[in-house]
Each structure stands twice: as structure tokens, then as C-alpha cells.
Amino acid sequence: MPPFLPLFFLFLLTSTTSKPTSPSPSSSSSSSSPSSPPSLTSLMSTNHCKLFSSLLSSSSSALSTFQSNIPSGLTVFCPSDSSLSPFLPTFKNLSSDSQLSLLLFHAIPIYNSLQSLRSSNGVVNTLATDGSNNNFNFTVQNNGDAVTLKTPLNTALILTTLFDKDPLSVFKIDNVLKPRELFKLVEPPAPAPAPVAEPPASDKNKKKNKHKHNSPPAPPESAPQPSSENVKSADDDNVGFRCACVAWRQLVLALVIVLVVVS
Ligand SMILES: *[C@@H]1O[C@H](CO)[C@@H](O)[C@H](O)[C@H]1NC(C)=O
Ligand SMILES: *[C@@H]1O[C@H](CO)[C@@H](O)[C@H](O)[C@H]1NC(C)=O
């Protein structure tokens, strides 16, 4: 038995050391990343950009466009899972062309470090940009250390750097970037004029209502009153006429009786 014990401990040692060696391949893959940029999709999916990563993976042309741009420089902005999740129904509602444009809208075909983004304000083109139209662009704007990306429809803030080594940088942002080419501007002035227009409208309505109240009730009120008065006066006249009639009849009767008696 004693001779087996050392062997047993040796086995334990090798089994425990074999466990650390299994993570070592992954660390060797991460050590290989400096030489060649890491897998974009795995980089994003392990950093709370899993939804964006899976959307990219499900569109072969979007993923290949991203990857083919890495050697010449690429800056990726991946919307966080919590910001992309509520947007998914809208995304799935888009045509496949629009879906592709929206994905390509989240990358600039130039390498930018966070520092270079901080030191530059202005309009940038994206992978979705049609060169001749300069469309599908957004504005990089800095406020202190904070870097925001603005479209006419919304704004996203850079949250963290997931990867930053020339020629690739990947930043996590807190919002899905909505290009104006795909979404109609929700016009806030539309509801605003309504309240502004309401006071005059309500005044007009009140005036109209006043006129309505004045004019419709007026005829009923004035009409019944004069009409009832007229009716009363007519009745009175009738009564007077009747009385006169009776008096005349009695007078005529009396005259006839007198004439008969006389004759
Ligand atoms: C999907 O599109 C239809 C028609 O364009 C629209 O009525 C509907 O509101 C859209 N749904 C979402 C979730 O965007
Ligand atoms: C940005 O895109 C719009 C179209 O959405 C275009 O009219 C405009 O010229 C572009 N701006 C720049 C600076 O390229």
C-alpha cells in the first residue's frame, strides 16, 4: 500500500495541474490576439454585446463587411444587450436591406482610439455610407471625457472599450444608433402646436359655443314666450269674440222676440 501512495499523489497532482493547463490554451489564444485581432463576434458576445454579435453573425454580408475592413482600420460601436433587446421587434420589422444598413451603420471604416474620438468632433461616415451620397453618417461629439454619437433621431454614449489596438477598436454604447435614412423623424413640434393652437381653438369653440348657446336657446326661449303670449292673446281675442257673439245672439234673439210679440 505505501508504494502506491506516492503514485496516487502524483496522479492527483497531474490531474489538478491539467486543469490549469486547460485554461492556458484560452490564455494562449488571448496572447495570440495582439498579433491578430480577436474574433469580433466572440469579443462582443462575451462583453454584453451578445445580441449585436448574433445579429451580425446571422447576416453573412454584414459580418464579412466588418471583417474585411479590419485590416485597413475599423471602429465598431456595439449597442449593449440591454439597449438592443427592446429594439429587436423594430429591427426584425425592417427589410433585409435596411437590417444590413443598420448593422453597417455601427462601424466606421477607420481605426479610432478612444483618445482620438475624444479629440475629434464632427461628422463621420460609416460602413453603411454610400460614398457618393455621404449618407448614413453620424456626429461624434465630446463633453469632457464622455464621447457621444448623434444621429438626427437619437444619441448614444460610449460606455466601455472592449478592444483597442490598431487597426481595430470596439466600443460598447448605450443605445442603438438610428440612421435618419431608415427611421422617420418623430416631430415633436406636431404635438406642440396642438396645445398652442388649442387656446385659440378653444376660444373659437367657446365663441362658437356661445353663439350656439345664444342663438339656439334664444329662438326657443324667445319663440315660446312670444308664441305663448300670442296664443294667449289669440285665446283672449277668441274669448272676447265668443262673448261678443253670445251677446249679439242674445240681442238678435231679443229683437226677434220683440218683433214677434209686436207683430
Ligand atoms: C412594423 O411595421 C408595420 C408596418 O410598417 C407597422 O405598422 C408596425 O408598427 C411595425 N412594428 C414595429 C414593432 O415596429
Ligand atoms: C450626412 O448625411 C446626410 C444624409 O443623411 C447628407 O445629406 C449630408 O450631406 C451628410 N453630411 C456629411 C457631412 O457628409
UniProtKB/TrEMBL annotation:
Residues 36-177 form the FAS1 domain. It holds the Pfam family Fasciclin. Its main location: membrane. Residues 20-41, 188-234 are annotated as: Disordered. It is a lipid-anchor; GPI-anchor. Keywords: Cell membrane, Glycoprotein, GPI-anchor, Lipoprotein, Membrane, Signal. Residues 188-198 have a biased composition (Pro residues). PANTHER family: FAS1 DOMAIN-CONTAINING PROTEIN SELMODRAFT_448915 (PTHR32077:SF86), FASCICLIN-LIKE ARABINOGALACTAN PROTEIN (PTHR32077). This is Fasciclin-like arabinogalactan protein 2. It comes from Dioscorea cayennensis subsp. rotundata (White Guinea yam). The gene is LOC120267565.
